[in-house]
Amino acid sequence: MASGLPKRIIKETERLVAEPVPGIHAVPHEDNLRYFDVSIHGPAQSPYEGGIFRLELFLPEDYPMTPPKIRFLTKIYHPNIDRLGRICLDVLKGNWSPALQIRTILLSIQALLGAPNPDDPLANDVAQRWKEDEKAAIATAREWTRTHAMT
Amino acid sequence: MAGSSPMIMSSTSVSASSLDLRALTYLTPVDENLCCPICRSLLIDPQTTKCRHTFCSNCIAGALEISPTCPVDRNPLERGDVSAAPIMISNLVNDLVVLCPNTPLGCTATRARSLIEGHLKDECGFVTVDCPGCEDKILRRDLREECMHTEDHESICPQLTSSCQHCSSEFPRSEISSHELTCDEAIMVCDACSVGCPWSGRRREATAHVLSCAFTYLRPLLHEHASRIAALELENKSLKKRIDILMPTRRDSERSENSSGLLDEQTIQILTEQEHIRSDLERLFAAVADMDMKQSLLTIHMSENMRTREEITMIGAAVNNLRSQLLGLQLLTLRQQSGAGSPSSGSSGTSTRAAVGSILPVRRMNEAIPGNDRVKL
């Protein structure tokens, strides 16, 4: 497995460990260096502040030509993240570029937590509530952060 | 990082065909500006787009197959929009000095990156090549120009034949050791040499020898004896250890001198001493018994003594009583003698009676303890 790992993945992993992004941790599995355990701290001044959200990240065989596969493992109330933890983010799909990296993608996800976009929803019910009663939706997001991301 | 070390430290030999330019180690620190945005390694065959971004030729080709945009700025991009980068960029990356990828095997060569492929192809002694004599892989430095074989390799190459030193027939080297185990001409010793058979000869004569060898028949018996002796020695050893623990003084005497004379002398000395001690002990026992008897006698005397003392006190009290009564009587008699008429007879009558009553028990006590002179006082 390790011998078949492209040099780029090795370099990225080394840099993630040597110069970690503040508020983001990504550690590869010992038995599968393409699979990462990720945790992202909720951004300040967002309903997710104080929470630590766990994600899984997998680098497919043709990475970096195709984007990494990322999913939230911690439950989160967000218009662009559905019940299964799937994320609606352009750079994870059509707007992926091989010049992007694990660290830039994780930064994009952290930014998405700070700026929910209910006009491009993945979780329809959440997005609708967000548009109808943003205050209540943010309160729910805070509540979910307390119960699921602070233990 | 865990993933990188096995790649760098891998001890498999790298040849010109298995060379991975992205896995090379550079002598100088890597300049990020000369790295491909896609593979993050120093550019290899750099290509520049019409939007003036530079990539490795393989990387940009792969990216354009997936999406017709520039990976850096997402501008629309097609194959025709990509051409060779300025020669200056190519020279910058090609002239960087790298370590030979066979450094872990011992190669000390360093070359400009553009020359490293040639080094592996023609020079590097740590590239594996085919042995012309067999299917083995050997390192290039082990090849010789004249015979294309190294002596080292020749001595181990299993395909070469060599002759049996006993029967002088030829065998492939890999089979020679198994042949020697069965060669009729090989010199061997009798199976019973372990129990003393001095015979040695060719293997083909061994069968005849075994039929006449007395040692062979005795061998099982001797083996049994040997194993029994071993068991006994073992037991003896453990017993000796226990004796040593029980008699530490004996260990000292054994260590200093093993001669039986000295041992006997010491034993006799110890025995006489023991005898002395025993008689002393007996005497002491008798003395103790004597003392015990004396002590019990003393105890009896003492208790008698105590009883006597008690009685003396009681008698003393009685004597005092008597004395006061006597004094009273004397006074009474004096008064009667000196008095003219008759004083009150009633009072004297009672006192006389009391005196008579108090004398009586004293007499009884005197009878109970004969031979006590003090009572008379």
TrEMBL record, chain A:
GO molecular function, one term: ATP binding
Family classification: Belongs to the ubiquitin-conjugating enzyme family.
List of catalytic residues: C88 (glycyl thioester intermediate)
The protein's Enzyme Commission number: 2.3.2.23
InterPro entries per the UniProt record, alphabetical: UBC, UBQ-conjugating_AS, UBQ-conjugating_enzyme/RWD
Domain of life the protein comes from: Eukaryota
Enzymatic class: transferase
Domain UBC core residue range list: 4-150
Protein name listed in UniProt: E2 ubiquitin-conjugating enzyme
Keyword terms of this UniProt record: ATP-binding, Nucleotide-binding, Transferase, Ubl conjugation pathway
UniProtKB/TrEMBL annotation, chain B:
Pfam family, one: zf-C3HC4_2
An example Gene Ontology molecular-function term: zinc ion binding
Limits of the TRAF-type domain: 119-176
Annotated zinc fingers (TRAF-type), start-end: 119-176
Highest taxon listed in the record's lineage: Eukaryota
TM helices/strands, residue ranges: none
Region (Disordered): 337-357
Chain coiled-coil ranges: none
Domain RING-type positions: 36-74
InterPro entries: Znf_RING, Znf_RING/FYVE/PHD, Znf_RING_CS, Znf_TRAF
Record key words, sorted: Metal-binding, Zinc, Zinc-finger
Name of protein: RING-type domain-containing protein
